[in-house]
């Protein structure tokens, strides 16, 4: 019974991680100028969506394929989304 419970828990955690990963990739893909490859580079460089959101435009510009203009656009888009979420009582 314990092994069954552990396997069900592992399955649920894996599913939740996939959902979160898809959500941030969709959010980043919605930013003009970001395709699948640039989204992948951002997430690989920073390691998590939380770190991408916390990054400054200068830090984003360090990622291969990102110039200062695109980095500023990503930064602004993520900040705008975060502020809107907080205004609605989201996280």
Automatic annotation (TrEMBL):
This is Helix-hairpin-helix domain-containing protein. The lineage of its organism: Bacteria, Bacillati, Actinomycetota, Actinomycetes, Micrococcales. GO terms for molecular function: DNA binding. GO terms for biological process: DNA repair. It comes from Agrococcus jejuensis. Residues 26-45, 58-77 form the Helix-hairpin-helix DNA-binding motif class domain. SUPFAM superfamilies: RuvA domain 2-like. It comes from the Bacteria. One of its GO terms (cellular component) is excinuclease repair complex.
